[in-house]
C-alpha cells in the first residue's frame, strides 16, 4: 500500500458539500486521507483539467444469478449480456466501483454470489427476493405475528448473505403459478387470499424492524401496464410511512390518456414523491436498440411474450419462492410506446426535485445495457442534445412529450449525487460514495470536456481501494471485488418453523440452506467480506 | 464431514439428493434411506483407497514431477482440447483460467446432450420448472421418451410422488416403457405412440393447440385433453434419451408447454447435466459469455456448437493434445489413446489407463471427487446450485488446485 495524491482536480463530493472546488485528494492505504499539501507522497498524479468523483455505485443492475445466465445463453455475446469478466471491466472503465444485483432468488443465492464473485474489480452485493415465497404467503394467510415474519425475513437475509430485501410483483409471481394472470394491489391471491398491500406492509415492517439500512426494494405490481400509476401510488400508500425504494419506476408510471390509451404519469409520480419523503426511486431508463429483459416477474414477462424480439423467451417457476422471465427486446424510436417510455424516464429524472432520492439506472439490461450510462448522462445534462434525440422519435411523442418544455439540465453535482452519494446513502454504505477522510479510496477521475458521453465513457484514472485499476479508459488491473452483506439479529427459534417446512424455504435440504462465511468467501473467489451489522429498531 | 450423519449430498447424478444418510459399514460407504443403484455404483467405484499415484507415460512420478511435466507438454500443444470437464464449480473456474491462457477448446464429455438442449432453448426458448414446484403443484406429470428413473433413480421420490399429500394424480409415459416400480395412488398410463417421438409430439402440439385433428391417435387426443384440463402439467424429458434430431423434439415439447400456458399452467423439466455437465455449461457461460464448445482466447473467444464438439475434434484429429478431466467414476477414460494427453482423474483411473494400454504419451494426475472426498458445488438439473460435503478425507488435491498449479507452472 502507498500514498497517492490526485493534485488539482475539480472535486464533486455532494455528501461533503463540495461542488467543483479545485483541491487535492489523497489516498493512503486504501482510504481517503487528510494530508498536508506539502507532505511527500509515493505518487503524485496531475489531475488538472479533470473532475474527481467517488467511484460510481449502481444499486440496481442484473449482474448475477440464474436468469442473467439464461439471458447469456439466449443471446450469446451480445453487449446486453456481457460475461462476468466483461461486466466488471466495463463498469470500471466508466468509473463505477460497486454494483448490486437487485433480484437474488433465495434458492439461487449461491449462483448469484458465484457469478458476482467472478465479476472483477467492482464490489457487489444482492437483495434477496421475498413476497412470493410460499412460506411468507402462508404466514400472512394465517395472520402470523409480525415478529415471526421479521424473524423469518431475518433468517432468509442471513441464509442468503443478502444486503437487502426486494419484492417483485408482490404475491403476483406466486399467483401466476395458480394461473392468476393479473393482481392489483388490493386484489387477493387466488390461493393464499393475501393481497400485495399486505405483503408490502409486512415486508417493509420486517425490513425496518430488523434495522436493514436499505429500505424494502420494491418492483411494483402491474409492470408495463397502461394505467399502472394507480398501483404505484397505492404501493407507496401501502408503506404507511415506512421507508421504501421503488425501483425502475419508468416501467410503473403509465397513464391511460390520449388516443393510444397510454400516457406519461411522470409528473404524478414526481409529485407523489414530494408527498412521500419515506420513498426513494431509481428510474430504469429505456434507451433504443437491442437488449434483453430479465425479470423474476413471470406474470408480467409471460404477458409480453408475443412482443419478444427476436421472438423467443425463457420463463420458469422457481423453487416455491420465485420466477423468471427472459425476453429479448428491441426498443425502437419509431414505436409510440417505446418512444414514450424513453420520454417518461427522462421526465422522471428531470421532474423529481430531490436528487438524493433518485438513482440513475437503466435496470440493466431491461431498459438498456449499463454501458449506455454515459449516453444517458449526456441526455440529462444537455437540453439541445435531448431535443435533437426527441425530434427523431415517433412523431406523436416528439410533438407531445412534456420533455419539450423541461429546460432543466442536470449539473455535475447532481449526477454525482444520483450515481454516488445517493445510492451509497440508500444502501447504508457509510464509507462509500464520498471522498471524506476515512472513506474507501474508490475514486474516478474524468478528463473534463463538453461532451458528457465521451467524458463518462472512459475514465482517465480509476482507483479501487487506493490502487489504480483503469488508466485512460483501459483496465490495468483486475482485483477481486468485495461482497457487502447485512448481519441481522433474529430469534433463532424461527428455525422450528423452517424445520417443519422441510426443504420448502430454499428448495434445498435445510442443512444446506445457510451460506456460511467460508462458503461465501469461496463462492466470491476469496474477495473481502463486508458484513454490515444491523441494529434492530423497535416496531 | 462425519460419516453416519445425514448431511450428505449425493454427487452421482444431477438430482444431487440431499436428504439421505451415508453410513460406513466394514470400511465401505453405503447409502442409508435409498437403494439408488446409481449412487451405490458410484460409491463402490470409489471404495478402494489405494495409494494415489501420478505417472508420466506409465512410469510412477511424484505429483510435483507429474505437474511440471504436464505443464511443459500443455505449453507445447498448439491447439489443445479440454475434454471431460467432469468436475465441480471450483474445478471449472480453474480450468477456465487455464484454457484462457492456452487457447483451448472446451467441451464436456456429454456435450452432445447439452448442445441439443441449448439449441432448442436458443431457437424458441422454454418454460421450465423445478423439483420444489413439481412437489407443490404438479397434478399431471408426463415423461416424454424416458422412464426417468433408469438414469435418475430417485426422480419420482424427489417429485414427492410417494407422499400422501402429493397433488399429482397421473403419471404418463409417452413413447417409453414405464419402470417396474411405480408410485401408488395414481394412474400411470403408457402411451406407446407411433414409435416416432418427434411425429407424436407434433401431433400432440396440434391437438393441444386446436383440439381437433384428423386421424388423431386416440391416446394422444386423450393426453392432449388431460394436459389442457390439468392445473399444472409438467413434461419431463431427458437429454441423453433423445432420438436423433433431439433438439427438434425438445423444441416441439417446449411448444406444447407454451401453448398450454395460454389457458392453464404447464412447464417442462429436463433431466440432464450430470457429472458436472450443467455446472461446466453454466460457469463457462458466465465466465466467457459463451456456452461450451468454445475456443477460448483472450481477445475473441469463438463458439461453434458443431465444429467444436469434443468427440468430433478427436475423431478428426483436429487437436494436438487433450487435457481430460473426470473426477467421477474411474472408468471414464478419454476416447483416444494415440494423442498426447494429460489426464486428471480419481486415483483408480491411473491403473485403468495402464490396463487399457493408454499410458503412453500420457501424464496422469490423481484428483479428489467432489462430494466424496472433497467439498464443492454442483448445478442440480433444475438450475439450483447445491453444496457438496466431503464424506471422507483422502488427502487428494481437487481439480481446482491441480489446474491452478498447472497454470502457475506454465512456462
Ligand atoms: S438419484 Fe442421483 S443423486 Fe439421488 S441418490 Fe441416486 S445417484 Fe445420487
TrEMBL record, chain A:
SUPFAM superfamilies: Composite domain of metallo-dependent hydrolases, Metallo-dependent hydrolases. One of its GO terms (molecular function) is hydrolase activity, acting on carbon-nitrogen (but not peptide) bonds. Residues 43-470 form the Amidohydrolase domain. It comes from the Bacteria. This is Formylmethanofuran dehydrogenase subunit A. The lineage of its organism: Bacteria, Pseudomonadati, Pseudomonadota, Betaproteobacteria, Burkholderiales.
Amino acid at each position: 500500500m502507498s500514498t497517492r495524491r490526485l493534485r488539482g482536480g475539480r472535486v464533486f463530493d455532494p455528501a461533503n458539500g463540495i461542488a467543483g472546488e479545485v483541491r487535492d485528494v489523497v489516498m493512503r492505504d486504501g482510504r481517503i486521507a487528510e494530508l498536508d499539501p506539502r507532505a511527500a507522497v509515493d505518487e503524485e498524479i496531475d489531475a488538472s483539467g479533470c473532475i474527481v468523483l467517488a467511484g460510481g455505485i449502481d444499486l440496481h443492475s442484473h449482474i448475477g444469478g440464474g436468469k442473467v445466465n439464461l439471458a447469456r445463453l439466449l443471446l450469446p455475446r451480445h453487449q446486453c449480456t456481457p460475461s462476468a469478466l466483461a461486466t466488471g471491466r466495463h463498469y470500471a472503465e466508466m468509473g463505477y466501483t460497486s454494483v448490486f444485483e437487485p433480484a437474488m432468488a433465495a434458492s439461487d443465492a449461491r449462483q448469484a454470489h458465484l457469478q458476482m464473485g467472478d465479476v472483477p474489480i467492482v464490489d457487489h452485493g444482492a437483495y434477496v427476493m421475498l413476497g412470493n415465497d410460499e412460506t411468507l404467503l402462508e404466514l400472512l394467510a394465517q395472520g402470523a405475528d409480525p415478529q415471526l415474519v421479521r424473524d423469518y425475513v431475518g433468517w432468509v437475509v442471513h441464509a442468503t448473505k443478502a444486503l437487502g430485501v426486494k419484492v417483485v410483483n408482490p404475491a403476483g409471481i406466486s399467483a401466476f403459478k395458480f394461473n392468476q394472470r393479473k393482481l392489483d394491489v388490493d386484489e387477493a391471491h387466488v390461493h393464499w387470499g393475501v393481497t400485495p398491500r399486505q405483503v408490502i406492509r409486512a415486508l417493509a415492517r420486517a425490513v425496518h424492524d430488523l434495522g436493514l439500512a436499505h429500505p424494502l426494494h420494491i418492483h411494483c405490481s402491474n409492470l408495463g401496464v397502461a394505467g399502472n400509476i394507480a398501483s404505484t401510488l397505492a404501493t407507496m400508500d401501502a408503506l404507511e410511512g415506512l421507508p421504501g425504494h421503488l425501483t425502475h419506476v419508468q416501467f410503473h408510471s403509465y397513464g391511460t390518456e390520449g388516443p393510444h390509451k397510454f400516457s406519461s404519469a411522470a409528473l404524478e409520480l414526481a409529485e407523489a414523491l414530494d408527498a412521500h419523503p419515506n420513498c426513494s426511486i431509481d428510474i430504469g431508463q429505456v434507451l433504443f436498440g437491442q437488449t434483453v429483459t430479465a425479470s423474476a416477474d413471470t406474470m408480467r414477462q409471460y404477458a409480453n411474450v408475443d412482443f419478444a424480439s427476436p421472438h423467443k423467451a425463457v420463463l420458469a417457476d422457481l423453487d416455491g419462492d420465485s420466477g423468471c422471465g427472459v425476453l429479448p427486446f428491441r426498443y425502437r424510436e419509431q414505436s409510440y410506446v417505446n418512444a414514450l417510455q424513453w420520454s417518461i424516464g427522462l421526465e422522471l429524472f428531470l421532474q423529481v426535485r430531490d436528487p438524493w432520492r433518485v438513482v440513475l439506472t437503466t435496470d440493466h439490461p431491461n431498459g438498456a445495457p449499463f454501458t449506455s450510462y454515459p449516453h444517458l448522462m449526456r441526455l440529462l445534462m444537455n437540453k439541445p442534445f435531448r431535443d435533437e434525440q426527441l425530434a427523431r422519435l415517433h412523431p406523436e411523442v416528439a410533438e407531445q412529450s412534456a420533455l419539450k418544455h423541461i429546460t432543466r439540465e442536470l449539473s455535475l453535482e447532481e449526477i454525482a449525487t444520483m450515481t454516488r452519494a445517493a445510492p451509497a446513502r440508500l444502501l447504508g454504505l457509510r464509507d462509500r460514495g464520498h471522498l471524506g477522510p476515512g472513506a474507501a479510496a474508490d475514486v474516478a477521475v474524468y478528463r473534463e470536456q463538453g461532451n458528457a458521453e465521451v467524458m463518462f465513457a472512459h475514465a482517465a484514472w480509476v482507483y479501487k481501494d487506493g490502487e489504480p485499476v483503469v488508466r485512460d479508459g483501459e483496465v490495468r488491473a483486475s482485483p477481486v471485488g468485495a461482497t457487502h452483506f447485512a448481519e441481522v439479529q433474529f430469534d433463532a427459534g424461527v428455525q422450528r418453523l423452517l424445520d417443519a417446512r422441510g426443504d420448502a424455504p430454499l428448495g434445498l435440504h435445510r442443512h444446506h440452506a445457510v451460506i456460511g462465511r467460508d462458503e461465501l468467501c469461496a463462492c466470491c473467489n476469496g474477495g473481502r467480506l463486508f458484513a454490515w451489522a444491523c441494529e434492530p429498531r423497535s416496531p | 464431514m462425519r460419516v453416519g450423519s445425514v448431511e450428505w449430498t449425493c454427487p452421482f447424478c444431477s438430482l444431487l439428493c440431499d436428504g439421505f444418510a451415508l453410513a460406513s459399514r466394514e470400511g465401505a460407504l453405503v447409502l442409508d434411506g435409498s437403494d439408488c443403484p446409481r449412487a451405490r455404483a458410484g460409491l463402490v467405484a470409489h471404495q478402494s483407497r489405494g495409494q494415489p499415484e501420478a505417472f508420466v507415460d506409465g512410469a510412477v512420478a511424484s505429483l510435483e514431477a507429474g505437474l511440471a511435466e504436464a505443464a511443459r507438454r500443455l505449453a507445447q500443444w498448439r491447439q489443445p482440447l479440454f475434454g471431460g470437464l467432469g468436475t465441480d464449480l471450483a474445478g471449472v473456474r480453474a480450468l477456465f483460467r487455464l484454457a484462457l491462457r492456452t487457447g483451448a477448446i472446451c467441451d464436456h464429455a456429454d456435450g452432445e446432450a447439452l448442445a441439443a438442449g441449448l439449441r432448442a432453448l436458443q431457437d424458441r426458448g422454454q418454460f421450465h420448472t423445478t423439483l420444489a414446484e413439481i412437489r407443490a403443484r404438479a397434478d399431471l406429470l408426463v415423461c416424454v421418451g424416458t422412464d426417468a428413473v433408469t438414469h435418475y433413480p430417485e426422480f419420482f421420490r424427489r417429485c414427492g410422488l410417494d407422499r400422501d399429500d402429493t397433488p399429482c394424480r397421473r403419471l404418463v409415459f409417452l413413447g417409453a416403457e414405464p419402470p417396474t416400480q411405480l408410485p401408488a395412488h395414481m394412474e400411470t398410463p403408457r402411451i406407446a405412440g407411433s414409435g416416432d417421438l418427434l411425429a407424436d409430439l407434433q401431433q400432440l402440439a396440434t391437438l393441444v393447440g386446436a383440439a381437433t385433428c384428423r386421424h388423431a391417435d386416440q391416446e394422444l387426443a386423450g393426453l392432449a385433453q388431460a394436459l389442457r384440463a390439468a392445473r399444472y402439467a409438467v413434461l419431463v424429458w431427458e437429454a441423453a434419451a433423445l432420438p436423433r434430431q433431439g433438439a427438434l423434439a425438445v423444441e416441439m415439447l417446449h411448444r406444447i408447454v407454451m401453448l398450454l400456458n395460454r389457458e392453464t399452467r404447464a412447464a417442462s423439466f429436463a433431466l440432464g447435466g450430470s457429472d458436472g455437465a450443467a455446472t461446466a455449461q453454466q460457469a463457462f457461460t458466465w465466465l466467457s459469455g459463451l456456452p461450451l464448445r468454445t475456443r477460448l482466447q483472450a481477445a475473441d473467444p469463438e463458439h461453434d456448437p458443431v465444429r467444436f464438439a469434443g468427440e468430433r475434434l478427436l475423431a478428426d484429429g483436429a487437436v494436438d493434445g487433450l487435457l481430460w478431466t473426470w473426477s467421477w467414476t474411474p472408468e471414464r477414460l478419454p476416447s483416444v489413446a494415440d494423442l498426447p494427453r494429460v489426464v486428471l482423474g480419481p486415483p483408480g483411473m491411473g491403473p485403468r489407463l495402464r490396463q487399457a494400454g493408454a499410458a503412453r504419451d500420457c501424464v496422469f494426475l490423481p484428483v479428489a471427487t467432489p462430494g466424496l472426498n472433497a467439498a464443492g458445488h454442483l448445478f442440480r438439473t433444475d438450475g439450483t446450485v447445491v453444496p457438496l460435503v466431503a464424506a471422507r478425507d483422502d488427502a487428494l488435491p481437487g481439480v481446482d488446485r491441480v489446474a491452478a498449479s498447472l497454470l502457475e507452472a506454465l512456462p
